[in-house]
Amino acid sequence: MKRFYLFLLLLTSGYLLPPASAQSVRWHEIHPGIWKGTVGKPDAYDLLKAADTEPSSTLKKLKKADFPLNNEDISVEVKNGKTYLRFPLERNEQLYGFGLNFQTIHQRGRIMQLHADHYGKSDNGRTHAPVPFYVSSLGYGVFVNSAKYIDVYAGSSVRKDSRNAPEVQDRNTDKNWQAHPYSDAVEMLVPAEGIELYVFAGPKPVNAIERFNLLSGGGCLPPRWGLGFTQRVNRLYNEEQVKAEAKAFSDKGYPLDFIGLEPGWQSKSYPCTFEWDQIRFPNPEKFVKEMDAVGVKINLWTNPYVSPDASIYSKIKPYTASNTVWNGIVPDLSMPEARKILFGQFEKEHVKIGVSGYKIDEVDGFDTYLWPDVATFPSGHTAEQLRQTYGLLVQKYSYDMFRKNNSRTYGLVRGSNAGGSSFPYVIYNDNYSHEDFITALINSGYSGVLWTPEVRASKTSEEWLRRFQTVCFSPMAMINAWASSTQPWTFPDVAEQVKDMAQLRMRMMPYWYSTFAKYHYEGTPPFRGMNLEEGFGMEINKEKTPTNLEENPYEEATAKEVKNQYMAGEYLLVAPLFTGQTSRKVILPKGKWYDFYTGKFAGEGEVITVTPGLSKIPVFVKDGGIIPMMPALLHAPKANEKVDLEIRYYGKKQAAVSSLYDDDGETFAYENNRYTWRELKVESRNGVLRGTISAPEKDKPNTIGRVTWHFMTN
Ligand code: GAL
Q1: In the sheet that 572-574 helps form, which strands lie side by side, from edge to edge?
Q2: Which atom of ligand 1 lies closest to the CA of 359?
Q3: 466 alpha carbon to ligand 1 midpoint, in Å?
Q4: Before 203, cis peptide (omega within 30)?
Q5: Are the CB atoms for 661 and 223 separated by under 8 Å?
Q6: What mean pLDDT is predicted for residues 122-128?
Q7: Which residue has the CA at smallest separation from atom 3 of ligand 1?
Q8: What's the pLDDT at 178?
Q9: What is residue 6's predicted lDDT score, i.e. its pLDDT?
Q10: Are 87 and 73 in contact (CB under 8 A)?
Q11: In sequence order, what DSSP letters do the residues of 600-666 get, joined into one string?
Q12: Statement: residue 7 has pLDDT above 70
C-alpha cells in the first residue's frame, strides 16, 4: 500500500512521467541545399499549403551543399500541445528577416510575436508580412512553416543548460557586466502539436534567401508596364475625371502606365459590392478599352468583405466567417466554393473587360476592424490561421485568374506571408514615414516580399521630391493620391526635377525588368539590404574602431544598423536623402564604386560624404556594372514592341559580362520557354573597351532594336 502511495506521489509530482524530451530532427534534403524536417503532428493547414505554389525548376540546377548547422544544436520539443524550437546562435552571428520590419534590420536579441497586422509603429512581430523565416550572416536560413502566431526569442535569453553560458558578473563591482549576456539560441514557440521546418544552405546569406524564394516558385515576374508609373486617383473620381488625369500626364510629358481607382468605382464600399458604380462609371467596358487605347491600364481597389447589396451575397454567405468586417461577410478563401464565387465575380466584372490588376486592401489586420480570434470559419480553420494566410489566399487566387486569362498582372496587397514570393503583388500601408519606408524596402528583401515606399502627400516641395526619388528606385513607382489628389506637378518649383526622375525610371526599364527576371528565375531579391552585399562589413566603416567580433560579440549586434542605403538590382547602390538633409554619408563596400550620373570614381571600401543637391538621389554603380537603358517613353513598350537600347558601362574593368532578359512582357508565354537571356559583354581590344550583345535566339521573342554602348568612366 505504501508503495502505491509513493508511486502516486511520484506520478503526480511529474517524476515518473515520461520525460518531455527534446527530439532531434530528421532532415531530408528535398532540393539541393534545402532540408525539410517534421516533428510531431504539424497542423494540416500551413503557410505553404495556403500559398500552394510549385517549387522553381531552377532548384534542380543548384549545387549540393552540406547541412549548414550542427543538428545536435537544434532541438524541438512538443509539450502540452505546443512546439518548442531551438536553433543555435554563434557569438559572431547577426540575424535578418522575421518578416516585414519597419524600424530594425538586425534582429538578434529581439522578442516578437509574428502576427499578421497593420504595422503599428513598433517592430514587435505584428506586421503586414509576419514571415517566419530568418537568414543568418553566417550564410544559412531557417523557415518555420506554420500559420499560427509564433513567439520568437531571437537570442534574447540564456538557458541554464547552455554549453556556452556566459560567466556571471557582478553589477556592483564589475565594469564588464552585461545587461544582455550572450545567448546561444534562437527559441520559438508554436501553438501546435508539431511542426514542419526548413533549413536553407548558402554559402552566402543571399543564397539562403534565393533558395527560400525558389522553394515557392521564385520571385514574381511583373509585366513590363508594371514597372512603369502608377497614379492612384481620388477615391470618388468618375470616368471623365480619370480620363482627364491620364490626359494631363501625357500632355505634360509625365510617364504613366496604370491608374488605380479607389473605393468610389464600386457601387458601395466598406463592405464592397465588387460592382461598378453606374453613375460614376456608366460603361466600364468602354472606359477600360478607351484607357487602354491611350496606354493606361486600370487597377481596382477592393477589400474582400461582401456587402449585403452585392449580387454574390447570398451565394457566398454559406462560405463565410461567423463575424463580419465593416458589416461585410468574410469569405472563407481556404474553401474552393468561396473562391469560385468571389473570383468568378472579379473575372466576369473586371478581368474579362480588361482590368489589369487589384489593390487588395485590409487583409492584414487592425484588430479593431478585422475578425477577432474567436471568429469561426466554415472550413474549420481557425481565425488565427486565416488571419496569417488571408493575404496569401487573395494573391494566389486572383493571380490564378489572370494566368487563366493569359494576361500578367502587377498589383498591391496589404498582407502577405511566407510562400508568396512568386505572387505579383507589392505590399503598402497607411503609415507615412519616409525613413520607415526605406527600412521596410530593405527588410522586404530578407522575407521574400516586395514593398513600395509610395508618395502620397507632402508638406513641402522638398519632401515631395525626396520621396519621389525613392519611389523611382523601388519595386512599384507609385503616387497614391486617393486622399490628397496630388499629381507629380503639384509642387511647381520641383515639377521638372520630378519629371526627370520619372523619365529616369522609364529609361531604366530594361535594367528593372532583368532585375525582376533574376528574382523570378534565381530568387535574388531585387531590392536588398547592404548586409547581403559582398564586401560590406562593419570593418570598413572608418568612423568606428575596428571590431573584433570574437572578442566583442555584442559589437555588431549593437552597432548601428544601416537603414538608409540599399542595393537595387545587381549593380546599383541607392542612398536616398530625407527632408531637411543636404548631405549624407554613404558606406561604399569593398571594390570600386562609380557615380551613376557621371561615371566618375566615387570611392572604394570607405565612407564618403555626398552633397548631391535637391534634384539628385545619390546612386552608385559597382565596378564593371552594365546598365541597359531605353528611351524615356511615356508608357512601357507593348508586347513584342522593339525598343532601342543604350547600354552604359561603369568602371575600368577590362572585361565584364551581364545578362539581359527578354520576353513579350505581357503574357505567360515565358512559362512555356518563350524567353531569352541575351549576353552583354565588355572586352578590351587593343586597350579600348568594346561592348557586344549576343545575337537573338531563333524563334524566341526579340524586343531589342538598335544598341549603342556608352562607356561612362573615362
Ligand atoms: C486604406 C488604404 C489606402 C486607401 C484607402 C481607401 O485602407 O490603405 O491606401 O486605399 O483605404 O479607402
Answers
A1: 527-529, 566-568, 572-574, 619-622, 584-595, 601-610
A2: 10
A3: 23
A4: yes
A5: no
A6: 97
A7: 430
A8: 87
A9: 54
A10: yes
A11: -EEEEEEEEEE---TT---EEEETT-EEEE----SSPPPTT--EEEEEEE-S--SEEEEEEEES-SS
A12: no
pTM: 0.94
Q: How is the beta sheet containing 297-302 ordered, strand by strand?
A: 425-427, 411-413, 357-360, 297-302, 258-261, 229-232, 477-480
- φ, ψ (nearest 5 deg) of residue 250: -70, -40
Other CB atoms within 10 Å distance of the CB of residue 559: 15
Q: Which residues is 321 bridged to in the sheet?
A: none
State residue 241's pLDDT score.
98
Torsion sign (Cα): 101, 589, 455, 209: negative
367: amino acid identity, one letter: D
**What's the 3-state SS for 460-476?**
CHHHHHHHHHHHCCCCC
- pLDDT over threshold 90, residue 22: no
Q: How far apart are CA 427 and CA 129, in angstroms?
A: 8
Closest CA to 107 of 88, 135, 87: 135
- Ligand 1 is surrounded, with C-beta below 6 A, by 235, 262-263, 301, 361-362, 430, 480, 482
Give the DSSP letter of residue 320. B
DSSP-derived 3-state class of residue 397: helix
- Kindly state the average pLDDT of the residues 174-197: 94
Q: Which three cell numbers stand for residue 500?
A: 526627370
| Bridge partners for 127 per DSSP | 116
Residues contacting 573, CB < 8 A, separation 6+:
530, 533, 565, 566, 567, 586, 588, 589, 593, 619, 620, 621, 622
- Those residues whose C-beta lies under 8 Å from the C-beta of residue 512, and which sit 6 or more positions away, are 227, 505, 526, 569
Residues facing 83 on adjacent strands: 78, 190
pLDDT for position 179: 85
Which ligand 1 atom sits closest to the C-alpha of 428? 8
Q: Is the peptide bond before 271 cis (omega within 30 degrees of 0)?
A: yes
Whether residue 12 has pLDDT greater than 90: no
Q: Which three cell numbers stand for residue 213?
A: 524564394
Probe residue for ligand 1, chosen from 128, 235, 301 as the CB with the greatest number of ligand atoms within 8 Å? 301
Residue of the CA atom closest to atom 4 of ligand 1? 482
Residue 345 CA to ligand 1 center (angstroms) comes to 22
